[in-house]
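(Structure overview)
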Amino acid sequence: MLPNSDRASLALTCSLARTTVHSESTKLNFSRGNNSGSSSSIDSAVSLDSISRGTQLLQRCLKDPRWARLEALQLPASFHNGLCSAAGQVAQRWPHLRSLTLVGNDQPGHEPLPTASRGLQAAWWAQLVSLMIKGIYIDVGAAQRLAQARLDNLQELCLDNNELHDTGLAQVLTAPWPNLSSLTISANGLSSTGMQHLAAVTHLTALSVLGLQNNLLDMQAMQALAACSHLRLAGLDLSGNEHMHYSGLVQLLAGTHLVSGLRSLGINQVALTNLAPLAAATHLSSLTSLEFCDNYFAATLAIPFGTATHLSTLRHLTLGFSSPSSVHTWYHTGFMSLLKQLPLPHLTSLVVKHVRLNHVSDEAGLDQAKLPALQTLLIAGLKSKGGIIALSKAQWPQLQELDLAGNDSLTASALGELWRMRRGCPALRRLVVPHGVNAESVRARLARGDWVDLAVAEHLPV
């Protein structure tokens, strides 16, 4: 698996003008950007557009003892031929390599997956537990060769934006891969036919996490997916399937064996008007994480969430809109009404994105009775000092971090009103303010309210 972010990591960046390296690392990343960290130059002119130069660089890295404990490798698709030509050395020189990522571009049709089948059959592929291929065109032939690759220990496969389509997926699913536990096949034009192929596959019994974001899945696709009686999923992401609708969610949740063990469900931007099927799905008694942004809930809908005690297991909840929206006010009010009804005694993390929250504590019911276990809160959508004052009245005794980075209209003066939260949120230790707001100014204003032990950090855009 990929090394943890706090471990020593490398960004070896090949730009058109310069190659840089951090030594003594377990992660090697060839990319098309400049590295921002401190580095030492090992080559002054390496062109990503030159496959031969890429091969030369890979050969040099294979021979360099600094990479002897390499665990993760990321490189452009054009470097894959060089990797294939060095296949005999990979297992010997990089015996700890476990993760490979091949990256194309945003238009996969212009950058096909290299077809060197001898490379896919190399013994070192059996080392991999994680393989990610992103933005690279995979036709039926390439999909067939991928399914025949020596990936005996593969646990995680991500095929993202590859123009795979249903026929390509059918070929990929012929692979044995007995240890495959996570499969992401987003943005590949998949339809109900692809889900029928998945339902017909019975040998991938270890599969527990499935990512199907941004495809063409509708009610019929959900019906086919629900028929996968050989699968029992712990994680499912259907975000971005705008043809799914309410009826699709009903069909999905009818597959009780498939979803009864779900711990994480993503249904962002799937054209839902309410979550009544979730309220009725009492077999979802293990659900701990739920995301449903960019859907349209009317405030007038009466949904019996107050009795949906099976959803009391939720620990992480994300709702709202991914960007500031001109959606009519009743949709925002609908989200708040929904949040007020949900029984959330164990919720530790809440993300509220771009919902109009000028009276958060009063109108949304975010109070001690509803969120007694809340530890982390991210809110984007506050517009004025009034919203901050309303927020500061909340009673969240376990709240430790408040992230307000997505509220660009707030000023240091408005944020200074958060001193009122000290009484209701005595455990709060970290506040993130929007980019451009002076953190020191906010800290000084909070100190006037005798709150001097709160760390204030300015959000830095990536």
Q: What stands out?
A: The chain has 17 helices and 19 strands. The two ends are 24 Å apart (CA to CA).
